[in-house]
Structures are given as structure tokens and as C-alpha cells.
Design goal:
3-stranded mixed beta sheet, Spore Coat Polysaccharide Biosynthesis Protein SpsA, Chain A
Length: about 425
């Protein structure tokens, strides 16, 4: 079947994954996709502790996507996986499981995953054409070098992954299913956002896919997955045929990663290479997208609790608690880790892994103030350690600290007692 004929084929489809707070993005994406592929279906996986996905669909407002609950895609231990991973990790790591579910449940021949902060501007013909011969399709972050000292650069992509997994496409073949099963196992076991150990949720694993599997296509079409990381090589223009990239190829879909809807001047919070003011070719594109997402906000549905960030008594779950649980999950197998009266919650409280009901703020090392007295105390301690240990042992100390900085490895502080009493 040709790509043109397939544009209305019900056996082709697309999907995305969100928690309730990101529902406006999913609604925007679904509408844009179905406008270009009117005969297809679009599926939205709702990642939350909520059994009924229908409450997230407002047909009166024009929603035409199929909502799916996390509880119905075939995870063996939903609550165990949800304790192991934070919200970003969980949303990304159930991706292959969701894709397998959709292929089985709906008999889809070709299936596309798109991140919710994507907008589709023309039919995904290049993707479906590639799937005529490939079992899976990836898009690289960049297709030309960039080495200008700005972010993201090539070193950032070594850290985050060669391919951007805001897009992935798969065909229903034995090999396609084998790729998904391989990916699923790694996502559910080692899908951490943990740069120190070379892991970045579902994305880094796909560095290996073109070498491990025969028919994985790398799609270099400049109109597919245009985003802040490849703007150095792609210029947009609007013509009587719509948006065109580099004067040649149609814009298929743009990935608005890091967008701030409330800031009309922000291109992406994740780059310092370009400001929106310096890219006049993107002004109308971003203005329209931000206005569309804002119009699609639904405060009632978006306020449905995520649920997997607290214990049953309201105690906030920390990343440290999640990592210790992940390391020793077999101790609490089959038990609800979110039950405040259960053995894991009791263990976490006794060890001080969780405390209080305030959700921990997201922070990175870049946010530390070098003039803060506490930070200065750490620096003085390091200087003393260098003098006391000498350069060789000091290096060993730094290696140990790098090891222990991985939260999963901090179980060494719990002692030998499996209940953490020693």
C-alpha cells in the first residue's frame, strides 16, 4: 500500500503519553495529527493513578482521541513501576509497553509515537514510506555538526542520546515486535534519568538499535522532528503550500520541546543558542502554537491528581525513596509500596527516606550559589581532604563520591539488615 493511500487507513495510527497536567498539549497534538490523517485514530495514554480514562476526554470540546489508562496496557506491577520511577521516567518508560498494547489491541500495521509537545503540519508520508521497508524509524537530533560552545552541542547529545525519542515509529512485524520487547525490558528495569551511569530514560537505549536490528531506518528528513536542537541546520519559510524547511522539504512536525506557553518571547528553556527574537522565521509558528495550547487548557481535567507522588497518607515520595525501592524491589514484591501502613512505607519513614507532605522541588547543580555558606563549607572540606589525603587518595575519594552520588547506591547506608534497622 502506498503512503498516499495509507493516509486514511484505519490500521495506521499515532499516540502520545501524558499525565493529567499535560492534557492541553495532548489535545493540541491529537487535533493536529487527525487534521492531517482524518481516517486514522489517535491514542493518549494517561499516566496517573486513575482507572477511568474517559474522564479525560471532552467530546463536546471536539476531542476525538482515544484515552487509555495506565492500568490497562499490560504492566505486571503498575504500582511497583510507579514507585520506582518519577513522573518523567514513568511517562517515558511505559512507551514500548503502550506501543505493544496498541498493536495487539487494535491490529495496527504502522504506529507512530509523538511527544505531546509536538504539532503536525503535514501528513507523515516520509515516516509511513520508511515503514514500507523498515521495522522501526528513528530521527537523529542533528544531521550536521555543531561545535560552537552553546547548548545543546554534540557533547550534550553524547549525554542525552543520538536519536530523539519524542518520535518513534514501528511496523507490525516479528522484528518490530522484537525491537519493542527488547526496549521494554530495558525501560522497565533500567529506565532511570541517571547521567552518571550513562542512562537517560527510554532514549539512550535507542543508540544501540540500528546496530542490533537489521531494519531500523534513520530518517534524516529536515521536516521531521524540527526542534531547538537542530535549528542551526534548518530554516523555516511559509509558502502557498504551507511551511517549508530549507526551501525544499515540507515541515511535517515541529517539536516544541522546552516551550513556555505563558512567555511569548521564549523559544525553549533548554537552549542558549537561539532566542525567539533572533529567529523571525519561527515567530508565527510559535505564536500560533502557544495560543492553541492555551486555548486547549481544561483546568478541571488537568487538576486530576497524578497520584503516584504521595503515599496513601499524603506523605510526599522522594527520589531517594524511589531509588532505594528500585534497588531492593524484590523485598516488597507484590505489596503496594504506596500504602502508608505497608512495609515499604514504614521502612522509608523509619530510615528518613521520606518526610512530610511538601513535594520536593526540582533542582540541579547549576542552581547552587557558590557564595552560599553551606556550599563554601563543602569546598573547604574538599580542600582539607586534599591536604590530608594527598592527590592520589583524594582522587579515589572523588571516585567513591561519584559512585555514592548515584542515589541507588546509597543503600550502603542502610546496613545489612533488610529492614534497615542497623
Amino acid at each position: 500500500m502506498s503512503a498516499a493511500a495509507s493516509s486514511t487507513a484505519p490500521r495506521y495510527g499515532a499516540c502520545t503519553i501524558v499525565s493529567p497536567n499535560y492534557l492541553a498539549y495532548a489535545r493540541t497534538l491529537a487535533t493536529s495529527y487527525l487534521a492531517q490523517h482524518p481516517g486514522q485514530r489517535f491514542f493518549v495514554l494517561i499516566v496517573a493513578d486513575h482507572q477511568d480514562p474517559s474522564v479525560f476526554v471532552d467530546e463536546r470540546a471536539g476531542d476525538r482521541f482515544v484515552a487509555v489508562s495506565l492500568h490497562e496496557i499490560g504492566l505486571e506491577d503498575v504500582r511497583g513501576v510507579a514507585m520506582k520511577y518519577d513522573i518523567l521516567e514513568l511517562n517515558t518508560n511505559v512507551k514500548p509497553t503502550f506501543l505493544k498494547y496498541l498493536i495487539r489491541q487494535y491490529g495496527l500495521e504502522k504506529l507512530v509515537y509523538l511527544d505531546p509537545d509536538i504539532f503536525v503540519y503535514s501528513p507523515l508520508t516520509p515516516v509511513f514510506d520508511a515503514l514500507d521497508h523498515a521495522d522501526a524509524v528513528l530521527t537523529p537530533h542533528i544531521t550536521t555538526p555543531v561545535f560552537d560552545g552553546k547548548s545543546p552541542g554534540e557533547q550534550d547529545l553524547l549525554y542525552n542520546g543520538t536519536y530523539n525519542l519524542g518520535f518513534f515509529a514501528v511496523r507490525r512485524t516479528d522484528e518490530g515486535y522484537r525491537i519493542l520487547t527488547w526496549w521494554e525490558e530495558r525501560c522497565l528495569v533500567l529506565g532511570f534519568s541517571e547521567g552518571r551511569t550513562g542512562l537517560f530514560v527510554d532514549q539512550k537505549w535507542m543508540n544501540l538499535a540500528p546496530g542490533l536490528f537489521e531494519q531500523v531506518a534513520v530518517l534524516r528528513h529536515p521536516g521531521c522532528n524540527m526542534a531547538f536542537w537542530n535549528l542551526h541546520e534548518r530554516i523555516l519559510a511559509f509558502t502557498d503550500k504551507g511551511y517549508v524547511v530549507n526551501k525544499i522539504k515540507p515541515l511535517v512536525f515541529f517539536h516544541f520541546s522546552g516551550v513556555v506557553i505563558s512567555d511569548p518571547d521564549m523559544l525553549s528553556k533548554n537552549t542558549d543558542r537561539y532566542l525567539l527574537a533572533g529567529r523571525p522565521d519561527l515567530h508565527d509558528l510559535f505564536a500560533h502554537y502557544k495560543a492553541t495550547v492555551a486555548a486547549n487548557h481544561d483546568p478541571v481535567r488537568e487538576s486530576v491528581p497524578y497520584g503516584f507522588d504521595i503515599l496513601s497518607d499524603g506523605t510526599a515520595v522522594t527520589r531517594l525513596a524511589r531509588r532505594i525501592y528500585a534497588k531492593h524491589q524484590a523485598r516488597w514484591l507484590g505489596l503496594d509500596p504506596f500504602d502508608a501502613a505497608g512495609p515499604f512505607a514504614s521502612f522509608a519513614k523509619r530510615l528518613g527516606l521520606v518526610k512530610g507532605m511538601a513535594k520536593p522541588a526540582k533542582a540541579t547543580w547549576k542552581e547552587f550559589d557558590a557564595t552560599d555558606r553551606r556550599v563554601q563549607m563543602v569546598h573547604r572540606a574538599l580542600k582539607l581532604a586534599l591536604r590530608a589525603l594527598g592527590p592520589h587518595r583524594y582522587e579515589l575519594l572523588m571516585r567513591y563520591l561519584a559512585y555514592i552520588a548515584v542515589l541507588r547506591n546509597q543503600s550502603v547506608f542502610l546496613g545489612n539488615d533488610p529492614d534497615g534497622k542497623k
